[in-house]
Design brief:
Strand 10 and strand 11 form a beta hairpin. By secondary structure, the protein is α+β, with helices and mostly antiparallel strands. The termini are far apart. It has a single domain, classed as Glutamine Phosphoribosylpyrophosphate, subunit 1, domain 1. It has nine helices and 13 strands. The structure holds aspartic acid.
Length: about 350
């Protein structure tokens, strides 16, 4: 048992990226919807085919979210619609396309928050819910709770009439290959260390990130944020990251901003990243850009915690910050002008 904790602790430390990047996007005014599809692949591993698929997924998500807003829908409707599109796209690590756990399963986490009422909903470790973001929203709107996990979340989602799938639905060749790769490396490392333990988790050099998220501002001035993920490749079963944790991976507050994060979840939980950004805007009276830069590119960077956040403030100003090489991201203004980016462009 002790050895297990030591191994996991060591893994967490070593999983932290030795990143040196630091980037922000310019502040864009009049944005009604911003999205991300995670940090994604390092440039050296990116192929033109994959990049094209990523860009298409982001574009489709922006279109779906904007259509909701144009039809008079709320920020919550836009966030849910955009995230559902990304969950259904196998190229991103959420819904179909989720990463595998150490045990070879897919366990999904998601959350959503309403900036007007500060109501929130989340599900974690679900294995049969096709669109976890809709389950998170149902928890927020149709239950007395904020977070449901595992079997309870699945029974609740079923009773709510949400689409239920066989766990095999989430399987993709891309992620299956990724976990096979990790298992191979683990086996080699175990052989070398002479450790026959079954539970030793060998940290992998570069975990696969690809969480999705969205932030929106509707015509009534209401902000919303949501995040959805398969988590981190090779996570232990039952491990829950920041994405379904309100104040860590997701936060929305009409007085300040809506935020969705991606990156190494353990650090985002420990640093309460999304709430820290909101708190800086509120109490330090800094801009959303200054706040997100401080948290992502100073606080997290200083401890080698890789990650990024997208922020839409109450006035419709959108920006992002990342200490990773890339961030799959996009945003769209009220008059329909959109941007989709992967690295620095
Ligand atoms: N933040 C997610 C987690 O730790 C992973 C990611 O963003 O890709 O579960």
């Amino acid at each position: 048992m002790i050895r297990w904790f030591l191994a996991l602790g060591m893994g967490m430390g070593m999983l932290a990226a030795t990143n040196s990047a630091s980037a922000v996007d310019e502040v864009t005014p009049n944005v009604v919807l911003g999205i991300h599809g995670g940090i994604g692949e390092d440039k050296k591993d990116m192929t033109p085919e994959l990049e094209e698929k990523v860009r298409a997924a982001l574009h489709a998500a922006l279109k779906a979210g904007k259509a909701k807003l144009d039809g008079g829908g709320s920020g919550l409707d836009a966030v849910e619609a955009a995230i559902r599109v990304m969950e259904d796209d196998p190229v991103l690590n959420a819904g179909k396309g989720a990463v595998f756990t150490h045990e070879g399963r897919n366990e999904l986490d998601s959350s959503i928050m309403d900036g007007k009422t500060k109501k929130a909903g989340a599900v974690a470790s679900v294995t049969i819910v096709k669109n976890p973001i809709s389950a998170a929203r149902a928890v927020m709107e149709k239950s007395k709770h904020v977070m449901l996990i595992g079997r309870g979340a699945e029974v609740f989602a079923t009773r709510q009439g949400l689409e239920i799938v066989d766990p095999a639905y989430f399987w993709t060749e891309f992620q299956w290959k990724a976990i096979q790769d990790v298992w191979k490396k683990e086996a080699e490392a175990k052989k070398q260390s002479g450790d026959a333990s079954d539970v030793l988790e060998i940290p992998i050099a570069k975990p696969h990130y690809g969480t999705v998220g969205a932030v929106a501002l509707d015509k009534d001035g209401n902000l919303a944020a949501g995040t959805s993920t398969g988590g981190m490749t090779n996570k232990m079963f039952g491990r829950i990251g920041d994405s379904p944790i309100i104040g860590a991976g997701t936060y929305a507050d009409n007085e300040t901003a809506a935020i969705s994060c991606t990156g190494h979840g353990e650090f985002f939980i420990r640093y309460s990243v999304s709430h820290e950004i909101v708190a800086q805007i509120k109490y330090k009276k800094v801009s959303a850009k200054e706040a997100v830069e401080d948290v992502i590119n100073r606080q997290l960077k200083d401890i080698n915690a890789e990650g990024a956040a997208i922020v839409l403030d109450k006035d419709g100003k959108f920006t992002t910050a990342r200490n990773s090489e890339g961030l799959y991201r996009g945003w769209i203004t009220a008059d329909g002008k959109f941007q989709v980016r992967v690295y620095d462009e």
